[in-house]
Amino acid sequence: MRRTLPALLLSLSAAVHAAPSDAAFEDMDALLVEKGLIARLGDQLQTARHTVGDQASGLVINAMAFLGVPYKYGGNTVDSGFDCSGFVRAVFEQSVGKVLPRRSDEQAAATQVIDRNELKPGDLVFFNTMRRAFSHVGIYVGDGKFIHSPRAGSHVRVEDMRKSYWNTRFNGARRVPLLAATGPAAASP
Description:
Layout: H1 4-15, H2 22-34, H3 37-41, H4 43-51, H5 58-64, E1 76-77, E2 81-82, H6 84-96, H7 104-109, E3 112-114, E4 124-127, E5 136-142, E6 145-148, E7 157-160, H8 164-169, E8 170-175, H9 184-187
């Protein structure tokens, strides 16, 4: 974890387009204190924080709050643990109020297809890990990395999707439409 968190913070800065704000840094500091990472990282964290030029999205910050939550097949809460799609569903529901379908293949079908080179933090990345398409899902955090709940005996963590295992199983990327076309304006031509 000592080497990956500063790299993750730097990758978030390159991938998000909003201007930095003190509130974003305060949120990140609170999360890192809660996870006990500030004391362990010390100067590395401060260096990475000063290098970060952009504000990370709230969704990715909220996803990071679940680091370390154990995997549980069928799990969809912090208390029970998460499977991959339960984790993604909980992050979107708690962060932006968007309720996604429960299964990873249903999440793929309910979201907008994008090219891998169009990925932005908060997009979904899908993998074939069980000899069927879209059997695993995670949330892209930037710089080729994604956060997910991988498998039994593991926990929510960040991994590099360019590593051989993930790269060969990559099924596609999707964007979650956050602005629903509802109401009278949507009905008019």
